[in-house]
Amino acid sequence: MIRTGIDAASDDNGWAHLGFVGNYIAKASPDFDPRNYGYKKLSDLVEAIGLFEIQWDGKVVLIRDARKNGSR
Fold first, then answer.
1. CATH number for the domain including 58?
2. Number of domains forming the structure of the chain
3. CA-CA 20 to 30 A from 30: which of 2, 36, 40, 68?
4. What confidence tens digit (pLDDT) does each residue in 11-31 have?
């Protein structure tokens, strides 16, 4: 779901605003909650998974699929 959300919300460089990805996930799967996986926030879950690159720009979190960038 996270990868699909990134694809739906990403720019030309593959970066997607985590808020937009979260909105996509909420619409696609209303029952999804990162707390079910032991994390308070989606950003914490995404970081723990280790499959995504993360950029923090103040309060804005950008993510992209690391395998599409060749990082993993």
1. 3.30.420.610
2. 1
3. 68
4. 999 999 999 999 999 999 999
CA distances from residue 55 to 30, 61, 63 in whole angstroms, order as listed: 26, 6, 6
pLDDT tens track for 31-44? 999 999 999 999 99
- Residue 27 domain boundaries: 2-69
> Does pLDDT of 72 surpass 80?
no
Neighbour count for residue 9 (Cβ, 10 Å): 18
Q: Where are the alpha helices (DSSP H) in 1-72?
A: 2-9, 18-28, 42-49, 66-69
Contact 28, 1 (CB under 8 A): yes
